[in-house]
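Long-time lurker. I teach an intro course on protein structure, and each term I like to show students one example going from raw sequence to a predicted 3D structure in token notation. This year I'd like something fresh instead of my usual example. Would anyone be willing to generate the tokens for the chain below so I can use it in lecture? Attribution to the forum is fine with me.
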Amino acid sequence: MSQLYLVVEDVTQWGDGFPDGSVISFDTYLNEYPKKGEKKTRVINLCNTDRYLSKGYYCSLLAEARGHKVLPSVNTLTDLASQQIYLLQIHELLHSLDKNLCNGLDDTFSFEVSFGKTDRTDLKQLSRKLFERFPCPLLKVTLQRGDGWQIKDLKVGQVSELSVDGLSLFQKTLIDFTQSAWRNPKHRKASRWDMAILVNKEEQLPPSDLKALKKMEKAASKLGIHAEIIGPNDYAKLGEFDALFIRETTAIDHHTYRFSRKAQLEGLVVIDDPTSILRCCNKVFLQDAFTYSHVPTPKTKIVSQSGESTIDELEEMFEYPIVLKIPNGSFSIGVSKVENRASLTSALQSMLLQSDLVIAQEFLYTDYDWRIGVLNNHPLYACRYYMADGHWQIYDHGDGGVESGASETLPTYEVPKVVLDAALKAARIIGDGLYGIDIKQKGNKAYVIEVNDNPSLESGVEDLFLGDELYMQIMSEFARRLELRGR
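-- Reply from a regular --
Happy to contribute to a lecture. Here you go:
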């Protein structure tokens, strides 16, 4: 684990609750750090940053020059110094402000956000999102009421300007935020690297179950990687880690993509990388890329209208039933099978309200779909996923919940060559990450349905043949990339 320091302008203002030696002055940090033998250092900069080239600005600048992870970063300070820049990053938050705020507030008022938290219940969600966008120990926010609530001003808060109650809240949130770093068990073996595994406990269909996550942590430990489970609210903690493994269903307009992109910018080894998420989360990209690269797929057409001429064209191209897909659907959500012209027209009109483009595809019925797991363009595992009982898809999203079909796991050398070749060809289009390629096989022909950038890794399913070796191979790839990063 890394060594954490709080850099302040006056150490006498900081009393109990902090480990000895963890609170240091700016002058001490300037003159005595980095120290020999301290490989990983984290800095929380609590100096005043009220002006450019202040001690607070230099603290973050020096930390980055020394290879220390610092909060706030120079980029965050620069963004918050420009209203034009920070308003671009919070534009979508402004639409929900009037829903988050209660009546009885002044037309203009200010409040502080301490590590994403505030004492105002109606502003908790906004505070957390602002901290995610601008990871900074203390933010000062000014709201103004017009036609709706607007953010009039957003800047780095100064600890020296806090009231007694405000300082008490800030110190509490500071201790809460840093507790995991200071709770460093002496019995735990020192690790070469730290990995964050992003998991959402609220997710209905998570890609990995708890038992599989434990196996990942164990495999990582054997390779000198300390793995720690983090959640959607831990965005600001990414700087503590060397690697990020996303084990939550990804989407582009979603915190998973923001985690991935931030990790990439921070220099972490990350799976799923943001490029893979962008490519895999949109079936329009996949279909166009597959066509260009001659990857075998079912007969497909991308449509943008639902008029009579479009319906005529689809009926001429396909036989019923026809499969319609929303480009960003997952786990069989956003997919419809239509049996006639009326249902085709209705489904297409409904989907075009959600997306300007819809994918129409020929229906290929099979008892099961192949799922080939590929890591760094090498086959990792192979599964057959059978259709849910009485349904044409693997997942059946009924009124009583979600049901799925049975599965069968087998060694990759038993997979038909035509299936394996199609999977590897599709994976190479996306990148060198961890992918699950869904394939339908008809006789001696294979058809790629889609590529999943965040494939399921569940205990007793995907690891049924390889066992713990599955997780060792994944963590070995992380270790390989971490080694290369350090050279």
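Some talking points for your students: The first helix runs from residue 26 to 32. The longest strand covers residues 378-386.
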